[in-house]
Amino acid sequence: MSSTPNAPSGDNRVRIVVATSVMLTFISYWRAAAVILNDLGSSAFYAGGIAEQAIGKSAPWFVLGVMLFAFAVRAVYVESCSMFVRGGVYRVVKEALGGTLAKLSVSALMFDYILTGPVSGVSAGQYIAGLINDTIAMADTHGWVPSAVHRMFHGTPQVGVNGTAVVFAIAVTLYFWWENIKGIEESSEKALWVMQITTVMVVMLLGWSGFTLLKVGFHLPPFPTLANIHYSDESLGFWKHSSLPHRFGVLGLIIGFGHSVLAMSGEESLAQVYRELAHPKLKNLKRTAIVIGVYSFVFTGLVSLLAVMLIPDGVRMKVYSDNLIAGLAMNMVGPPVLRLAFRAFVVVVGFLILSGAVNTAIVGSNGVLNRVSEDGVLADWFRRPHKKYGTTYRVINLIVGLQLFTIIVSWGNIYTLGEAYAFGVVWSFVFKTISMLVLRYRYKGERNWKVPPNLHIFGVEIPIGLASVGMVLLSTAIVNLFTKSVATVSGIIFSVVFFAIFTFSERVNRRKHAHTLSQMKEQFQLQQAESVQRETVGIRPGNVLVPVRDYNTLNHLKWVLERTDTREQDVVVMTARISQFGTAAYGLSTDQIFSDYEQTLFTRAVSVAESFGKKISLLLVPARDPWSAVAQTAHNLESSAVVAGLSSKMTTAEQAFVLGSAWEAIPEPKQQFILQIVQPGGVVDTFRIGPHTPTMKNEDVVLLHRLWLNVTQEPGLEKVHHHDILTQALTRFARDFGAHDHEDIVKELRRQSAQAEPFPVRRIADQIHTVQPGPPRPDPDHDSTNDTSK
Amino acid sequence: MSLSILFVKVLEFMFVAGWIGSVIVLLLTGAEDVETLLDTKDETTH
What we know:
The complex is a heterodimer of chains A (790) and B (46).
Chain A: E1 14-19, H1 29-40, H2 47-55, H3 59-82, H4 89-97, H5 99-141, H6 147-152, H7 161-182, H8 188-216, H9 244-247, H10 249-260, H11 269-274, H12 281-310, H13 313-319, H14 324-330, H15 336-374, H16 393-410, H17 414-442, E2 454-457, E3 460-463, H18 464-483, H19 485-523, E4 524-529, H20 534-537, E5 544-547, H21 555-563, E6 571-578, H22 590-593, H23 596-612, E7 617-623, H24 626-636, E8 641-645, H25 652-664, E9 673-678, E10 684-689, H26 698-712, H27 722-737, H28 742-755, E11 767-771
Parallel strand pairs in A: 1-4, 1-7, 5-6, 5-8, 6-7, 8-9
Antiparallel strand pairs in A: 2-3, 9-10, 10-11
Helix pairs in contact in A: 1-8, 1-12, 2-3, 2-10, 2-17, 3-10, 3-12, 3-17, 4-5, 4-17, 5-7, 5-15, 5-16, 5-17, 5-19, 7-15, 7-16, 8-12, 8-15, 10-18, 12-14, 14-15, 15-16, 17-18, 17-19, 21-23, 24-25
Chain B: H1 3-38
C-alpha cells in the first residue's frame, strides 16, 4: 500500500491531511453588504403592501419600527459571529440548546429560506403584470389599441395579475433550478452590480418623491394607535372573533409589528458572509451591519412611508397593494410617459433583485441542508453528487419541488405567502437570540464583542441588551402564532415534517456512519490541520498537485503517475470539499468534511497509485470555490505543476483562465506554476499560471529585430540589446496607457482582440503549447490489470 | 383577571420592556457605529 513519505513506521494506513479551515476568497464589506442586501433589500418591494393590507394606513410606522429594531437584531448577529462558536442558527442553537431544538430551529429557517423563493418570484411577476396592464391601459386611452382587440377582450385587454405572477415565478424558479444543478458560482461582483443599479433607483425614487411632496403637499400616515390600526379579516387569524386585539393598545402594536416583521428577512445572511469578510473581520462585520442597516432603513422604511403619503387612498391598496413601488412611480409629478418609463425601470430593478432572491433562496436552502447533512441529520442519499455536474442535485430538487408546490398552492397570493414567510423569519430569530442568551452563561470563552448594555451584580452578568431583543422577538413570535393562522398551520406542519425527516435521518446515519468510520479508520489515518502547509503534508517543494473530484475520471492522475518518479518529485492528490453558501459560516470537524464520498474517491486514487507502485500524498480541503482552493493549495505547497482533468463545463482555456484569476487573487509573494489539463483522448494542454514570457508571434520577433538594427546604427547606441528595445517600448506603452492615449489604445486592442482567438486567456494564462503525451516512463512494476479505477 | 388577559399582559410587558432595552442597545451601538465608520486606519474598503 502506498503511503506518504513521513507516515509513521509500522502503520500501513494512508495518511490524509484534512484541512479544517474553509479556503475562502475574502471580500470587502461593501461586497458583503451587497450580498446581504440582495436578499434584505428585496423585501422593500412587497413588505409595505403586505403590512398595510393587514393593519391599515399606519403600517409604514411599523415597517420603520421593524427596520429600526433590525439594528438591534444585527447586534445579536455581530456577537454570535465574534464568538468562538461562529455561525448561523443551526450551529449556535445546537451549541446552546442541543440537537433537538437545533433541528427545530433549522426547520423554521428552512421554511424562511424556501418561502423566500416563491414570495420573491411572485412579487416580481406582480410588478411585471402590473406594468403590462398599465401600459396597455395607457395605450388604450390614446386609442392605440385596435377596436378588434378591444372587442375580443370586451374592453381594454388585461393580463391576469396572479396567473402571470405564478407563471413568471415558476419560470424563474425553474431557470435557477437548472443553474444550481449545473453549479453556478455565487458572485459578490454580480450582487454589487445589482445593488448599484438598485441604488440609482432608490436615489431617483427618493429625490422625485421629495420633489413631489414639496409640490403637492403631504400628510403623514396616521400614528400607530389602537384607534388607527384597522385589522383586516385575515390579519387576526385565530383571534378573529376575540375582543383582545381591540381592547389592548400594546397588543395592537405587537400585532402590527408582527405583520411587518418580514421587512427584515435576510438578516441571517450576515452570519453566512462573516467567514468571507476580509481583515479586520469584526470591524468589517460591523461596517457591513451599518451599511445594510442604513440602506434597508432608507429603502424599505422610507418607501413604505412615501407610498402612503403619495399614492391616493382610493388606488393604493386596490391597484398597487402588490406592487407598491410601481404605484409610487406612477403618482409622482411629471409627464405620464416619464412616470411610466420610471415604472419600467422599477420593474427591471425589481426583476433583478427579486430574481436574485429566488436564487439566494435555492442556494441558501441547499447550503443549510448540506450543512445539516454534514452533521449527520440528513441522509447521505441527499448529498450524492450529480453525475455530470457534481452538485447535490437531490437536495436542490427537493427545495425547488417544495417551492413550486408553494407557488401553485398560493396561486400568486403575495399576502398569504408573505404572512407565512414571516413565521420562518421571526422564529429563526427567536431561536438564535435565546441561544445567544443561554451561551452567555454556558460559554465562558472570550468574546470579541457583546451586545450592550450588560450589568454585573455580585459577579453575575445580566445581558440587558440581548434579553431585550429576545423579549421583543419572542412576544412578537407568540402573537404571530395567534394572528397568522395560515402561517402557523403551514409553518408548524412544515417544521414538524422537516424535524421528523432530520430525526429519522440522524438515527439511520448514526448506524451507517459508525460502520463507515470504522472502515475508514482501518484504511486511512486522518490528520487534522488548521491550514494547508507543505510541512504538514510532508512533501518537498516542486511537487505535482493533482486535483480530483469524480472517482470515475482519474485519467489525469494516471497520466501524472506514468511520467513522475515519485522518489524525486512528490505527487499530491487533493480534493476540494465544496462548502456551499452558508456552510462557510462554520468551522468544520474532520468527520463532517471526510464523508463516505471522499473515502471512495481516495480509495480509488490510492488504487491507481498502487497499480503504478508509487507513493502519493492525500489532501482534503474545504473550500467555497474549487479554483481558489487549487490555486491557494499550489501556492502553499510550493507546487511546480498542477495537473487537472477536463472540466465538464469548461474548455481547457477557460479552466486556465479561472485558475489564473484565482492565482491573481493570492497576495504577494507568490510563485508561478504550470497547469496541465489532460483531456479524455490523451491530449494535454499546458499553460503557465502567473506572469511569464509571452509567446511572441514571428512577425513581432522580426519587427523587434529590425528596430534593433535601426537603433544600433545610431551613434552611441551600438551596445543596445533587444531587451532594451522591449523595455523602452513597454515603458512608453505604460505611460501612454495611463494618460492621454488610453482610449485609443483600448480601442486598438479591442479591434485586435476581435480578430484574435475567442477566449480571453492570454492576459493571465498564456497557452504556450499543446503536447501529445510522450511515451510513459518505463515502469516494470506497473501492472495495468491492477488498476481498479476503471 | 382571566388567564387570557394575564397572558396578554405578560406579552405586552415583554414587548414594551424589550423595546426600551432595544432602544438603549441602539443608542449604545449607534455611538460605536459612528466610531467604526470614522476609523479608516485599515485599507480594506475597496
